[in-house]
Structures are given as C-alpha cells and as structure tokens.
C-alpha cells in the first residue's frame, strides 16, 4: 500500500509514499503490516498530504520510534484488497510471471513494474539481458495467473 519515507513532526507520525491506486483505503483499515516481517501495527489515524500519506500507528509516539520504520513497506492482507476489474492486476500478481512471445519464444521473468505517466512498464530479466515491455493492449496479449505466464506480441524494435 505504501513505503515509509520519513518521520513527520514530533508525535511519531510517518510520511509514506502511496503505492496503491486506492488511497482512500486507509480510512477503512484498522491494522496494517509493516516490513518484510509483516509486523502488525494498529492504525490510529491517517491523512493525505499531497501525493503522500501521513500515518499514526498505535504505540509509535516519538520521532525516534517512527524513524525505525523508515524504508519499510506497508502491506494489507490479500482478503482486504479491492477486487479489480477484468484485465487489471496488482503488481504482486505480475512480478514473477514468465514472459513469452505469441511464437513461443521464452523471454524471461518479470522482475519489476515501473509506473510511468502513460502506462506501466514490465522489466523482464532474461538469461543475459533485460527487456522493457510496455503494459499496453497492443503488446500484452494474455495474462494467465494460474499458469504464471504472460504472452506478448512484440512490436517492431521491442526485442
């Protein structure tokens, strides 16, 4: 949902980069999970702050305590995620998919999703190369989460 960037003020608030398309979700959450360890934190309050969010966690009352959370990601359980419409996916669903062309050529695995102004870009790591695949209907022909595959039709100059 977000990545904690820094402390804010003197009461233990953290400032976080919003990584969700649904920032209003913070108003419905009572508990979030922080860091790779997914440590539970009760959410005492939040407010949008430009393109970021300010969060107050129960038990985090000083800048020093808040500072220990810097750089950590904020997660929610999958069952709390908003159901997306057909053809839309969460980043965690895309990362790790094997990419192949409509001709059956294996290109590699999606390692990262870059968010740009126009469309997302999938970073595909191959054996000896890295490809940038635009997430547009002209290129992405099929996403099969069950099989862990994405099928693309490369446009001229892509490969």
Q: Rounded to an integer, what's the Rg over CA atoms?
A: 19 Å
CATH superfamily grouping of the largest domain: RimM
Query: What is the N-to-C succession of helices and strands?
Result: EEEEEHEHEEEEEE
CATH topology of the largest domain: Elongation Factor Tu (Ef-tu), domain 3
Number of domains: 2
Query: From the helix content, strand content and strand pairing, which structural class follows?
Result: mainly beta
Total count of strands:
12
β-strand percent reads 35-45%
The general outline is elongated
Span between N and C termini? 33 Å
What CATH architecture label of the largest domain applies? Beta Barrel
Describe the structure.
This protein is mostly beta strands. The protein folds into two domains: 2-80, Beta Barrel (Elongation Factor Tu (Ef-tu), domain 3); 91-152, PRC-barrel domain (SH3 type barrels). The chain has helices at 63-67, 91-94, and strands at 2-8, 13-18, 31-34, 39-49, 52-57, 73-75, 98-101, 106-115, 120-125, 130-134, 140-144, 149-152. It has a six-stranded antiparallel barrel.
């Amino acid at each position: 949902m977000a990545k904690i960037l820094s402390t804010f003020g003197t009461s233990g608030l953290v400032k976080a980069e919003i990584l969700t398309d649904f920032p209003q979700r913070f108003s419905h959450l009572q508990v979030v999970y922080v860091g790779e360890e997914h440590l539970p934190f009760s959410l005492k309050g939040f407010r949008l702050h430009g393109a970021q969010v300010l969060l107050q966690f129960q038990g985090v009352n000083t800048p020093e305590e808040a500072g220990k959370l810097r750089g950590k990601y904020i997660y929610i359980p999958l069952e709390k995620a908003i159901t997306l419409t057909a053809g839309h996916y969460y980043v965690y669903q895309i990362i790790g998919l094997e990419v192949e062309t409509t001709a059956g050529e294996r290109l590699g695995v999606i390692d990262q999703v870059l968010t740009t102004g126009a469309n997302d870009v999938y970073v595909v790591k191959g054996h000896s190369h890295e490809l940038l695949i635009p997430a547009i209907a002209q290129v992405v022909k099929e996403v099969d989460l069950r099989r862990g595959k994405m099928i693309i039709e490369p446009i001229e100059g892509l490969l």
